[in-house]
């Protein structure tokens, strides 16, 4: 009787519960699923990869095969913490890179830039190293490498108007040179 009273009271009966659910469309044939593997006791164990084939042993050198001729010695010198901005030194370094030592000395002697004197000293030092340590003749060398790297910057402050101060950067650089004997082929 209670169900009838509810109907008369204007309530709708729950029709969704009485209706069957619509069936889903049949799925297309799918690949059969692989059976799940049983968990291993140690998770950290990984399957081992196939071993690599061993490299063939190198053939032993025969007495006929000799080592190639030794390369020309490289004589190096470097000046560190030079109190010139690296940008200014690079302008001069680009002019003498690759030149013979005699030509580089002549160019540096008549250059109007202050960085030229620092480069000239460094090249003279490298020539002295070549003569003393490697028994080379200084006039037969050429500049193989010449690099100018930035060093630490000294920061100073200058008083300005209205109580302000501006920073002045005093830059330094590291210069390195490598000399090799000229090829006279």
Provide structural commentary:
This protein is of the alpha+beta class and 185 residues long. It is 25% helix and 21% strand. The model has no long low-confidence stretch (mean pLDDT 81). Strand 3 (154-159) and strand 4 (165-170) form a beta hairpin. The protein is flat. Helix 3 packs antiparallel against helix 4 (115-133). It has a domain at 75-181: Ribosomal protein L22/L17 (Ribosomal Protein L22, Chain A). The strands form two sheets. A three-stranded antiparallel β-sheet has the order 1-5-2.
Give a nutshell description of this structure:
Helices cover 25% and strands 21% of the residues.
How many separate helices? 4
Q: Considering DSSP H and I runs of 4 or more, what fraction of the residues is helical?
A: 10-25%
Class derived from helix and strand content:
alpha+beta
Q: Which value, in Å, is the CA radius of gyration?
A: 42 Å
- Fill in the CATH topology of the domain at 75-181: Ribosomal Protein L22, Chain A
> Which quaternary structure do these chains form?
single chain
Q: Provide the succession of SSEs.
A: HEHHHEEEE
The CATH homologous superfamily of the domain at 75-181 corresponds to: Ribosomal protein L22/L17
Record the strand order, biggest sheet: 1-5-2
Count the strands? 5
CATH class of the domain at 75-181: Alpha Beta
Shape: flat
For the sheet with most strands, the description reads: 3 strands, antiparallel
Distance between the termini: 122 Å
Poorly predicted runs are none
